[in-house]
Amino acid sequence: MAEKGKSRGRSKSGVELTEDVLARMAAEAEAGLDVTKLRRRGRPRMGSAPAEPFPVRLDPELRQAVDERAAADNTTPSDVIREALRRYLQAS
């Protein structure tokens, strides 16, 4: 049997995972987790609702221009395209 105080590493948030901590976490899980306290994973929302992918074909020259602008602005091609659409459509 492992020692109660022996460390099993650390969580992503830096909590030391001792046998005591792991036993407490297991007891909480068995008693039923409060899902409202769980962190959501995944990409953050970009607007009022989850974003949907919208595939678009670009000719090589336009794609190169988007990639160059993204590199110059230290951002992603997707961000460049979203910003261009917002400006063109005058949408926020």
Number of helices: 3
Instruction: Walk across the major sheet and give the strand order.
Output: 1-2
- Helix and strand content put the structural class at mainly alpha
H/E series, N to C? EEHHH
Please report which band the strand proportion falls in: under 5%, 5-15%, 15-25%, 25-35%, 35-45% or over 45%: 5-15%
The rough form would be described as elongated
**Runs with pLDDT <50, length 5+?**
none
Ends apart, CA distance between termini: 60 Å
Helix content: 40-55%
Number of strands: 2
Average residue pLDDT: 84
Radius of gyration: 23 Å
How is the main sheet built?
A: 2 strands, antiparallel
Briefly, what is this?
The chain is mainly α.
Task: Explain what this protein looks like in three dimensions.
The radius of gyration is 23 Å and the shape is elongated. Helix 2 (60-73) crosses helix 3. It has helices at residues 19-31, 60-73, 77-89, and strands spanning 7-10, 16-18. Among the domains are: 7-32, no CATH class; 60-89. Helix content is 43%, strand content 8%. The model has no long low-confidence stretch (mean pLDDT 84). A two-stranded antiparallel ribbon has the order 1-2. The protein is mainly α and 92 residues long.
Question: What distinguishing features does this structure have?
Answer:
3 helices, mainly alpha, 92 residues, two-stranded antiparallel sheet, single chain, 2 strands
Topology:
Elements: E1 7-10, E2 16-18, H1 19-31, H2 60-73, H3 77-89
Antiparallel strand pairs: 1-2
Helix pairs in contact: 2-3
